[in-house]
Known about the structure:
alpha/beta, Nucleotidyltransferase, domain 5, 16% strand
Amino acid sequence: METFVVFDLEFTSWPGANAADWSAPGQLREIIQIAALRLAAETYEVVDRFEALVRPVRNPVLSPYVSELTGIEQAAVDRDGRPPAEALGAFLGFCRHQIVVSYGNDMVVLGENVGWARDRGEQVANGFLGAGFLNLRPLINSLAPATATANVGRLWSVLGLPRPGVAGGEHSALFDCHSLAAALRHLGRDGSGPVARLIDASVRGAAGLGAVDPLPS
Length: 217
């Protein structure tokens, strides 16, 4: 079965951090939650999943803002959070030999965190070269303009789809993955449409990832 991966990240934040691009002293986008779903390439049905809480290093105490936003409590991170290098390596292993898609440039934040772990002298298993990362937000926004201002966790609602049947809500990484999967399932229902063509070309290697136009013709 040919498959691909959708993923989402939650990371440390503070009031105004997004607007200021995390430029205040000491503010870094340290990952605190990773989630991913492996989907069947033809049906977009879920065949496997990955989820991990991650303990931030530079800012080990979560801000009240990010806890309220994501629902991730300090006690859960302290109890269940994995060291960054361990969690990142496990996630990259899950993505090995897969096309990996997100709604936005989450791969940039992923790269930042891998770099910080390596700078600390930590070993991150696997790596980026075994997977192809792709931001599908431009394509989704082009096909469904109403999604242009929606975050990933609200795609199902904006598209008028049933609410994903998983716990949590927007800004919970696993819920956000299910929301993205629902959007892709909906937009890819036409097997000859741009979503289906892009996924098919990427997964099957019919075109190099960088050569595939993410916007419909």
